[in-house]
Amino acid sequence: MDSTKAILESISDGVFTVDSGWKITSFNRAAEEITGVPRAEAIGRECSEVFRSSMCETACALRESMSTGRPVLCRSGYIVDSDGERIPVSVSTAVLRDEKGKVLGGAETFRDLSEIESLKNQLQGRYRVGDLASRSSGMQKIFKLIPAVASSPTTVLIEGETGTGKEVLARAIHSSGSRRDEPFAALNCGALPDALLESELFGYRRGAFTGATGDREGRFIAAGDGTLFLDEIGDISTAMQVKLLRVLQERVVTPLGSNKSITVKARIICATNRDLDSLVQSGEFRQDLFYRINVVRLEIPPLRERPEDIPQLLDVLLKKHSFAQGVDVKEYDPQILPLLMGYSWPGNVRELENFVERAIVLSTGVEITIQDLPVEILPRRNKAAYASGTMRGARADTERQMILAALENNRFNRTAAALELGIHKTTFYRRIKALGIPLPESDGRS
Amino acid sequence: MNKVRIALTVWNGRIAPVFDVAGTVRLVEVDGEIVIDDRLVSLPHSTGMMRRVAALVEENIDALVCGAVSRPVHRMLVDSGIKVHSFVSGEEDEVLKALLTGGLEENPFIMPGCGMGRNGRGCGRGAGNRGKGRNRGRGFGPGRKEV
Known about the structure:
The structure holds two protein chains of two kinds.
Chain A: H1 2-10, E1 14-19, E2 24-27, H2 29-35, H3 39-42, H4 47-51, H5 61-68, E3 72-80, E4 86-97, E5 103-112, H6 114-126, E6 128-129, E7 132-133, H7 137-151, E8 156-159, H8 166-176, E9 184-188, H9 194-202, E10 203-204, E11 216-217, H10 219-222, E12 227-231, H11 238-250, E13 252-253, E14 262-263, E15 267-272, H12 276-281, H13 287-293, E16 296-299, H14 310-324, E17 331-332, H15 336-342, H16 348-362, E18 367-368, H17 383-388, H18 391-409, H19 414-421, H20 425-435
Helix pairs in contact in A: 7-8, 11-13, 14-16, 18-19, 18-20, 19-20
Chain B: E1 3-11, E2 14-15, E3 24-31, E4 34-42, H1 49-58, E5 63-65, H2 71-79, E6 83-85, H3 92-101
Parallel strand pairs in B: 1-5, 5-6
Antiparallel strand pairs in B: 1-2, 1-3, 3-4
């Protein structure tokens, strides 16, 4: 008996036992340390008031073991310790019986998972830079370059489709380097006409043009010793390209209406969702400007080329938006993962983020299920089946698609379409009527 | 007239062990020591902590009596102007009686590990020695500095 006690005292898992009235009968050293409750105070008290776990009210493992007679293994939750800290724990329980098999009470062992959680977070850190989260090899290459790029003042060109996170990457570069405490100024060059873009970038002096009632400093100056992020650089006019080239070459700007040049100290990061190489070849983008900005080139792969990132992005975005909306962090049904990973995400991470935000607002349960997926994410051929939830619906939808495809293939010639489908013309017409497929006036014979 | 609205998170006839996941609140309105109104309201599970606190604020309560509560939630409650009696345990009726007669700080109503008596340590009551092991000494008050 003494050796059992010695073993219980030496292990790092918390162990306590209760009698059939849920009062604590033993409490080991690790249990004292994890809960912050001294053994002398724990013995004889209600176990829920000593253990204070998120599971006590609704998912008590010990109650389940006592009622079923079977052990419960590794159930996760948290306890609130004496300091008001939530400590993640994993619990296992079993029933205690006497020699005759009569239930004497129960035993619960619990493990403090905070160290594992913190190791997990450190590991996650390897796959995160700033607000970027990725495990894919393409993004990992970029992550490795970020420290070197961040510590140099060089101009950076970020390429990537819309919604891939070009500005997020620019911010990550900014905040990883020595400029992190300086301003980060961003401007979408594609959204502004030339005159406005010029005054936004270079600033103006009072009276420079009608309506210029005061001085205004441009973004180049506003960025100070920080970073200026110029998005949609591929969309600026040739005239603006010349002006921008001059600034990048001479590192000075002259506000409109002024004859005094101001030195530009900010690091420039440009981004585009267009193919600058082909724009240069077609003459739409100046080659000299291209060489000036193409010093370090980072290309963010589209989300469809790195579906392995979707689970991690989902976790990050669910946490972010659950917090923003003041709800408990929602989980997701693992069944939706293959559908999300199979979708092409034309709007990339931004589209995924919009989906998550919408799902958190609209889903009523604790997890996001297949019912919460927008119709475009569901596989095309299964849309009707998911919508109606029946075999009949799925079959009708498949038939409808095959008939429409056959009609289109045969320029709406009904006889030819029926032949292609291998059914009689009468059956073909009957199915068209039953499925309510509209037919055009022309029948493809003329 | 000295009407006070009190909320107690309850479970199985006792104060619920953890406020963060408590499913039922007993709302009591008292005038002095006389109970004017006494009813149960459910706090749905799996809702955010902000909503949980907001639900109590909407009930216009002056004080909350609850079991263990995590620090961020405690802070939210206090910031909402609610007087919080946390880490309380015991039969709900006895706790209510003790609250009204000023005996809630007595030993039988204090959760295990939360100190002995009025000047005891921890669990939302202030500073002092927090026992042993990891992260001790980090109460709501100016606890022992970590080294």
